[in-house]
Amino acid sequence: MPKDCLFCKIISGEIPSTEVYRDEEIFAFEDINPAAPTHILVIPIKHIQDISSATIEDQETMGKLLLVANKIAEDKGLTKDGFRYVINTGAYGGQTVFHLHLHILGGRSLGWPPG
Ligand code: AMP
Ligand code: ZN
Fold it and tell me: Residue ranges of the alpha helices (H) in the chain?
């Protein structure tokens, strides 16, 4: 793991977080600065810089990440009214933490398109 990666430190517990889900491949936690009533980040345990850096080796993990997100959305009661997944990528995408993460946003109506 890159020793300066914030989300690797959250996975290891070096930096505290509010855990939502953990298994051998996937970790999920509450976003510290929520943009919606429900705002959860779902990340691979393996350090992958961004979605563009994922390779064929990561295929199963990426599939699992989406299915874990679906389970969390269901458990948090988001499925009925709807919700949004976001993967910010690179500078134009607004990515600020360079460990791949899927945002789950829900609990209110969300605007479109993004600013
Ligand atoms: P992005 O802009 O897509 O890279 O998203 C990074 C997200 O990480 C933002 O929504 C931040 O609020 C969130 N974040 C940053 N630091 C922490 C932290 N220590 N614990 C939880 N979420 C964090
Ligand atoms: Zn990392």
Answer: 6-12, 59-75, 90-93
